[in-house]
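FIELD: query
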Amino acid sequence: MRKIYHALCKAEVAVCGVGFIFLVTFVFVSAILRFFRVSVSWNIDLAMFLLAWTAFLGADIAWRSGQLVGVDLVTRKLPRKMRKIIEILLYCVILSALSLIVVFGVQLSITERIRTYQSIPIPYSLVTLSLVFAGLSMVFSTILKIRRCIINFNKKETTGGGK
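FIELD: result
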């Protein structure tokens, strides 16, 4: 199971990287073509599609690797066990919010299945599925973070990082 999870994580990083490269390329080409007064509307629609996917996948990658900003001014002076309890509680709140995002994202995807982009025949629900996919991935990452906190509850802290 662990190998499958790591393979999915690597695939997610690869898809996000390739999507970002294409996103930048489409926007750049569109700007160049606009300079020459050539309108390519599908370029912008495809760039918006890639922006949604790369943004949400990038958020999951940052969450999983502990690269998001955290504020520990309040908990820094608390005892280690109390910090761990607060950390687990916050992860549970985050897990609840992510679960709501996934549920309502699925509902939105179902609602948006008929709507398509103006210039390309891609259903808009593929964009909203990026939220669902990244949300599910973040749910698994959060569950692993909670599990890791519980396993390491009584162990001494090493240098942090949230991984």
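FIELD: remark
The longest helix spans residues 2-35.
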